[in-house]
Amino acid sequence: MPPRAIALPVLLLVVAGSAVAWLKLAPPPAVPETSSAEHNASSTFLTASRKRPEVAAPREQDQPASAAPLPHYLRNVAPSGIPAPEVSGPLLRVEARLPEIRQPEPEALPTTGDLIVIRRPQVVSAGTLTGNHLTLHLAHVDALASKDTCPSDLGTDWPCGALARTALRAVVRIYAVTCKKTADIGEREISAICERGPLNLSRWLVEYGWAVPDDTAPEDYTELAAVAKEEGRGQWKRDWEPLLVDSDEADTYAEEQPQAKSSGSSSVSEGGDADLYLDSLSQLEMLPSRNALPEAVATGGSSQNNAELNQ
């Protein structure tokens, strides 16, 4: 092998060894000097980046509610395909509370002279009706209270107030009553002139002795009250005594009233059940004879009239 071919590799090995020896034996480069403020800022930044972010303390008004975990660590429970809500701050647990149920607003009070239709009115006493969130006192009369009693010639008292209420219930029944406001008495409590069809309820109570006219009543009310007292109607009845009915009399009366047992359909419009009902009340001294009642009330009226009253 020629000497030149050997000298070139040897020269490369010597140069490489010299470079390695210089890197190993040469001193390290000098570190540039930095100020202490910059060193502290960099160390603080590194330390803060390795810590968890701190949560701001809740305000005073939020103290009763306990703080929930940070949004970053909350578990996403949204169903698949539905994005989770965006959370911009720490969540707070709130106390459980019942849902608020809003009550319907009561109807506005009618003004004087307005007509009010009371459907399915409730007779509280002989002179008081309720319906449409209103309490209506029949105008122009002083009616008996439900607990009032009246004397009889036997020296005992009989429940004329309860029977007066029952008599008015028998007239009103479930039909609609049309009232005309006359005055305010209290909160949702008014005085009114009420009619069931063509029948004036205040006038009817006076005519049959279940009420007396007051100072505002029409002049004919005084005459009606005098006639009722003279004939011993309603509260002016003096020979009243409890009605005792044995089973034989009850069976006989039922046989004489075949229309009372209709086959599933109401016969009020034909007068059957209404006749039996008012006749039985007359026997209990709750009403005068049905022959003395207005025709529209005694017979129950035609089906067309009943439909109009119920509307």
From TrEMBL:
<feature type="region of interest" description="Disordered">
    <location>
        <begin position="251"/>
        <end position="274"/>
    </location>
</feature>
<feature type="region of interest" description="Disordered">
    <location>
        <begin position="292"/>
        <end position="311"/>
    </location>
</feature>
<feature type="compositionally biased region" description="Basic and acidic residues">
    <location>
        <begin position="51"/>
        <end position="62"/>
    </location>
</feature>
<feature type="region of interest" description="Disordered">
    <location>
        <begin position="29"/>
        <end position="69"/>
    </location>
</feature>
<feature type="compositionally biased region" description="Polar residues">
    <location>
        <begin position="300"/>
        <end position="311"/>
    </location>
</feature>
<feature type="compositionally biased region" description="Polar residues">
    <location>
        <begin position="33"/>
        <end position="47"/>
    </location>
</feature>
<dbReference type="InterPro" id="IPR035437">
    <property type="entry name" value="SNase_OB-fold_sf"/>
</dbReference>
<feature type="compositionally biased region" description="Low complexity">
    <location>
        <begin position="262"/>
        <end position="271"/>
    </location>
</feature>
<protein>
    <recommendedName>
        <fullName>Thermonuclease family protein</fullName>
    </recommendedName>
</protein>
